[in-house]
Amino acid sequence: MSANLLKETGPREVFCGLTSIVWLHRRMPDAFFLVVGSRTCAHLIQSAAGVMIFAEPRFGTAILSERDLAGLADAHEELDRVCCELLQRRPEIRTLFLVGSCPSEVIKLDLARAAERLNEELQGRVRVVNYSGSGIETTFTQGEDGALAALVPLLPASDERQLLLVGTLADAVEDRLIHLFGRLGISTIRSLPPRQSTELPAVGPGTTVLLTQPFLTETARLLKHRGATVLTAPFPLGAEGSRRWMEAGAAAFHLPKERVAEVLDPLEERARIALRPHREVLEGKRIFLLPESQLELPLARFLQRECGMELVEVGTPYLNRDQMAEELALLPEGTRVMEGQHVEQQLDRVREHKPDLVVCGMGLANPLEAEGIATKWSIELVFSPIHGIDQAGDLAELFSRPLRRRQLIHPGLHPINPDQPVHA
Amino acid sequence: MQLTLWTYEGPPHVGAMRIAASMEGVHYVLHAPQGDTYADLLFTMIERRGKRPPVTYTTFQARDLGGDTAELVKRHVREAVDRFQPNALLVGESCTAELIQDQPGALAQGMGLTMPVVNLELPAYSKKENWGAAETLYQLVRNLLKDQVPSQPSHDPNAWKAEGRRPRVNLLGPSLLGFRCRDDVLEVQRLLTMHGIDVGVVAPLGAGVEDVLRLPKADLNVCLYPEVAESTCSWLERNFGIPFSRTVPIGVGATHDFLVEVHRLLGMEPPSAEEGYRRSRLPWYSESVDSTYLTGKRVFIFGDGTHALAAARICKEELGFTVVGLGTYSREMARPVRTAAKELGLEALICDDYLAVETAMAEAAPELVLGTQMERHSAKRLGIPCAVISTPMHVQDVPARTSPQMGWEGANVIFDDWVHPLMMGLEEHLIGMFRHDFEFVDGHQSHLGHSGGSGAGVDTKTAEHATVEVDEHALIWTDDGEAELKKIPFFVRGKVRRNAEAYALQVGCREINSETLYDAKAHYKA
After folding, report:
1. Can you give the pLDDT at residue B450?
2. Which of A138, A239, B456, B520 is the most buried (most CB within 10 A)?
3. Same-domain pairing of A215 and A245
4. pLDDT at site A169
5. How many domains is chain A partitioned into structurally?
6. Please, is A366 exposed, middle or buried when counting C-beta atoms within 10 Å of its C-beta (0-12, 13-18, 19+)?
7. Is the pLDDT of residue A308 over 60?
8. Alpha-carbon distance B233 to A327, whole Å?
9. Which residues of chain B are within 8 Å of residue A64 when distances are taken between CB atoms?
10. Helix, strand, coil share (%) of chain A residues, nearest 5
11. Do A52 and A132 share a domain, yes or no?
């Protein structure tokens, strides 16, 4: 194998790490995410969450004002006041994440110190941890890496032999994976993040870690420091990736290959049947993935190998070659993998290559649609239950649907010139 | 430091983006980290635009901070100018860049660019979106027109008569991410054309640099949205002597007042007060017998200044509602909103904490809420029907059909949008008559737009209980009292419960039984 690894820099069009709060807060209903930042941060999360549907969300922003910047008010005192106000209003909160932002990083507001001080004051009633989701340091899903990395030092120590699944999964998907690992013969399986922030899993030399998501570099590093073994495998997207991911887990627990095959063969067969109608739509179609969620490489691998798509370019905000080694190895020879972004030049290439489908952020999707290019939101992929063999069909459906939709409505809406976009 | 969960307004640079994206040939270079690019989706998703906003973000990273961020700014300015060839360039910074003080505007002005470069200084830690929009429009107009400013302002709004042409006005203020601006422009244009008045320039929506340059050619400026355009209109008045109209034509009465003001300023004979009755259906629909049931409906109003003020007037003067709460998140508009509230015997709620608004809403016990998307959700929780009258923008506020708020057609739209969430008159009457029939179980509320069926019943109960908690220690509902309460239609039950409790507290009884309910009824109807 050798993918064609390229790099570019320039203006980027990606979310910052704060965005991951949108799914993290749903995973841990007893946790609150308090961004220490500006009105922009508050507006970002609100806009990325899309609709304002929550009675009172479990995330918020302590908005810095001129007084905080001018030093008139001691920012630390102010932060304590805001935290107390918040915790009084939300007594059910057990873990408070103080999330650093671009402005708090630039003014060097020490949130670690703030967390330490608040922990003393609150005396264990609420645990306060901190991490940075700032856009000058993190991209989109990296925010989850920061949040989980902040939890690692708090995990109790244990030598127990266990499998630890790391990365947020939809509850139903997680239950299914745990069930399947159980059938393979692994009985002790825990998750980080847990469903309740207070039920942190233990970690130690007996722990084998499988990363469910490809953006958890720092968390993985810290878990290794705690004695855990972090497996490298393709990520559990698609039937093939999920199978190899589970096999890596099974191998670490020295489970007999026959039993693994016995459990997984029928699942893989079923997945292939589920994939078939989508493969019919996707086969031979050309896809361009813009960098955003960090899921681009595993998705590209799935779409190429299991759905027969042709990869025009695979963008990724950053490339961790060690963690992605298995994924890179499965990409076809010469695949253009672009690390970083110059959004204007990248869009020039999109227009030049006229792909059938583009995976991109919410800001770019409609403009591309108006130019006649079908799109898929990358943020949908971090919200949807797409992990595991059983979800392979659903995952493919996310990509086939925009193409099917065009087939359905395009002739009716553009009877004269069905190939011509009209909204550009 | 202020704890904020949902915000009514974005940061000021988003206001600047609204101006840039509304216009043609204007590009905005924004010194900002990568996360700030989220703002594009406000335009491409919420407003469903098929075009990216004309914004280049410098997307500096932590590692750039040690180096030469000024050079980074200049590189992006150069690239943006080469690629987009704008007729005017806005250069500014977002909250983070403000802290590192690169002064991108001044840098760009020093680059010897051929097009006008406007340096935007929008203090992100003290100002908000609408202010940012107003300041950007003002700075842009001032910059483009500075060479045309006469030494002595001389302007005759009646000049059109001598010149033998129709009078000409500019419409200032409509912008992207403004509430129904797209359709208001069409409606106001139609309204003015009908009266023989031409529209010169509409800005910022759809205007190019050359349009801004011909702003002074108009006889009069029409300030459609004071939040965005008032400072620009004032500047044009001070420097060119062009007067501007201040009435916002939302509602039948205000549309008439607007026409009178514009006619008067242009030296024309004002139109007949009958026009509204002929051109809009609101007056007749409001007078028709079915609307009798709207009389005295309790309404809670919250929104931006312009729309909240307009709503208060329409509710009181045109629909016969009782306004029980009035407020705005626009601090710039606090004064007129306070005055309007005072005239209604209320204290205005000037606030940008949506939870405080929700609390005020619950206390006011309205039967209809006119608010923003935030109030729509609060109202849903409280089981109160709601219509949205103001930004912050939601994808639902950009309907496919034309639905202005301004002018005669705007009044029609408002009648439909505000009255439909309420029970229709005859239907309300019939439900009252047949409420003991088994078909009319709790939760039957076909015209509550937000939900129907049993779900709505649950909402109502929660709302009732929420109010009980306040006096829980003091008041006890007997089984017989609860049973009597159940017989009352669900849509007024909350009010009856509150009245009974208020009455019980007033007369000093702790127990509420069926008799107390009747006593309270007599007391409040008397």
Report:
1. 39
2. A138
3. yes
4. 95
5. 3
6. buried
7. yes
8. 60
9. 1, 125
10. 50, 20, 35
11. yes
Q: Nearest to residue B32, comparing CAs of A78, A101, A144?
A: A101
Of the pLDDT bands very low, low, confident and very high (cuts 50, 70, 90), residue A349 is: very high
- As a residue count, chain B comes to 526
Cβ distance A19 to A145 under 8 Å? no
Q: Are residues A113 and A53 in the same domain?
A: yes
Q: Does the beta carbon of B450 lie under 8 angstroms from any beta carbon of chain A?
A: no
> Is residue A321 included in any domain, yes or no?
yes
Residues from chain A that touch B50, judged by Cβ atoms under 8 A, are 366-367, 369-371, 423-424
Tokens (6 digits) for B162 = 């001598």
Residue among A68, A86, A103 whose CB faces B3 most closely: A86
- Chain B residue whose CA is closest to A365: B44
The enclosing H or E element of A135 equals: none
Q: Which pLDDT does position A48 carry in this prediction? A: 81
Higher pLDDT, A38 or A424: A38
Would you call B509 helix, strand, or coil by DSSP?
A: coil
Let me know whether A126 and A199 are in one domain: no
Q: Which of A258, A293, A308 is the last residue of a domain?
A: A258
Entry field: residues in chain A:
424
Residues A113, A21, single domain; the answer is yes
Q: Is residue A3 part of a domain?
A: no
Residue B524: how many CA atoms within 13 Å on its side-chain side? 16
Interface A:B, Cβ pairs < 8 A: 195
The CATH number that applies at residue A133 is 3.40.50.1980
Whether B125 contacts A66, CB under 8 Å: yes
- pLDDT value of residue B508: 86
The residues, any chain, with a CB within 8 Å of residue B272's CB and separated by 6 or more, are none
Domain identity same for A238 and A169: yes
Closest to A55 (Cβ–Cβ): which among B49, B373, B381? Answer: B381
For A25, the domain range is 17-137
Residues of chain B with pLDDT under 50: 445-471
Share of chain B above pLDDT 90, in %: 75
Q: Is A62 in a helix, a strand, or coil? A: strand
Catalytic residue list of B: 290
Does B356 lie at the interface with A, CB-CB under 8 angstroms? no
pLDDT of residue A313: 98
Task: For residue A148, tell me if it sits in a domain.
Answer: no
pLDDT in tens, A274-289: 999 999 999 999 999 9
Among B30, B45, B71, B96, the strongest candidate for a mutation testing the A interface, having the largest count of A CBs within 10 A, is B96
Structure confidence at residue B66 (pLDDT): 82
- Is the same domain home to A319 and A399? yes
Report yes or no on A2 lying in a domain. no
pLDDT at A343: 97
B373 in A contact zone (CB under 8 Å): yes
Residues A347 and A399 in one domain: yes
Q: Which positions in chain B touch A39 (Cβ < 8 Å)?
A: 4, 7, 9-11, 95, 124, 128
Which of A258, A289, A311 is the endpoint of a domain?
A258
